[in-house]
Amino acid sequence: MNLNEQSTAVPVDLLRLGLHIHALDRPWVETPFIFQGFRIATEQEIETLRAYCRSVYIDLGQSEPAAAEAVMAAGKRQPLHTEQIGSPTHEALKQRRVPEALRECAGTLFEPTTHPDRARFGRLVHAASNIRDAASEAVRESLLRLHQNRPLNITRATRAVDQMSRLINADASPSLWLSRLQRHDSYLADHAANSCAIALAFGASLGMEGKGLQCLGLGTLLMDVGMIKVPRETLTKKRPLSSGERATMRQHVEIGGEQLAAAGLPAEALAIVRQHHERIDGRGYPNGAGGDSLPRQALIAGLADSFDAMTVDRPYRAAFRPDQALQELYRSAEETFGSELVEAFIRCVGTWPVGSLVQLDNGAIGIVVGSRPGAGAWPTVLLLRTPDGEPYRKRLLLNLAATDGADAQVNARQIRRALGQREANIDIGKVVAREFGRGRRDSGKATEAA
């Protein structure tokens, strides 16, 4: 048996450190594992595999020799199933779609057609754009009022959250797509609107609705208004903050909480403002609360806040790719937001979150703009560059989960890897702004290049 050419099905009770997981007995998107294919490095990964799978496919050639030998020896006592990597059976396992009943953040916009209606998507993006602008303006108004020592008014913010909730319940893709748009002069307002959209999409995917979802959106949208009282030079530092500067920055929680309480923010939303920086292990602030004492909504808001903050450039570091941000959230889950919540978030946004810059298996480059329910590993991509590196003359939406047409499976494309904006010389914010009418639309690489 040539270990380099074979994939072996192994019951999860035989797993051990050092084995290379090549495939699962279920779609990757149904599990918390971010990347398809990895070598087991921790006991926690084994426990997670056992929780989600009955058996997995091992690439023995990429496994550590001792681990491969041990599992094969165990297989003599408990028969293993071996098949050629690339065989029809193996490829069918890789291509198996997630059950349609699985609820995702992505909504229902991208149905099975290979090339979804770009005009329809554009109309929804415009609607989402107006609502996102309303949310950003509500935050800017609150920041200005607080800066001028005037009482806060949450009416405008409440209206914006209600509008965003209705749109996200219909389909989250357009709102999450716009979360990649950042104006350099209004980070606080844009970050608040983005975090709100992410939190609402996640909350809705968990079954939240009505007043609970509204409070989640309100608390997330307004959680950082106290930042306006933090000296600008502290917020824009390109080096780590001193202990004194950190203490000053952390005062934004108390400042915002006091002002929003006076403005009549509902208690459920106020708890988010006051606790969105607290963490499971008690190392958050302002009170170092942890464990079961933290409201779930505060953890959801903090998770959305962290994900959006990691995926934009900051004065002290470059932006994470969305998949890298998910990996970081997963790595620190036990200490921050809890494994159960982080794993649910990863299932919600999918293997390739909206806004991910990706290269397909034929070399073409595009941006993930959404997905149909249960197809997080096969999203819909806005094609930017051909396999030859040239800009597409006509930008198309390509649904990787498409099942229509006789050639849908024959010509199916898959994502090969994620790309960084600098690596690809593509500014995602400019693409978002120009592609659907939020700014002047140019042709060619000028639209894409940073």
Report on the structure:
With 450 residues, this protein is α+β, with helices and mostly antiparallel strands. It has three domains: 3-95, no CATH class; 118-349, Hypothetical protein af1432 (Orthogonal Bundle); 357-447, no CATH class. It contains 16 helices and ten strands. The strands form two sheets. The protein has a five-stranded antiparallel beta sheet, covered by helices on one side. It has a five-stranded antiparallel beta sheet with strand order 9-8-7-6-10. Strand 6 (357-360) and strand 7 (365-370) form a beta hairpin. The radius of gyration is 23 Å and the shape is globular.
Q: Characteristics of this structure?
A:
disordered N terminus, five-stranded antiparallel sheet, globular, 3 domains, Hypothetical protein af1432, 450 residues
What is the CA–CA distance across the termini? Answer: 50 Å
Which CATH class of the largest domain is shown? Mainly Alpha
Q: How many structural domains does the protein architecture include?
A: 3
Unreliable stretches covering 5 or more consecutive residues: 1-5, 82-104, 406-410, 439-450
Fraction of residues in helix: 40-55%
Report strand %. 5-15%
CATH topology of the largest domain: Hypothetical protein af1432
- Supply the number of helical segments: 16
How would you name the CATH homologous superfamily of the largest domain? Answer: Hypothetical protein af1432
Instruction: Supply Rg.
Output: 23 Å
Read across the widest sheet, the strand sequence of neighbours is: 3-2-4-1-5
CATH architecture tag of the largest domain: Orthogonal Bundle
What is the string of SSEs from the N terminus onward? EEEHEHEHHHHHHHHHHHHEEEEEHH
Overall geometry: globular
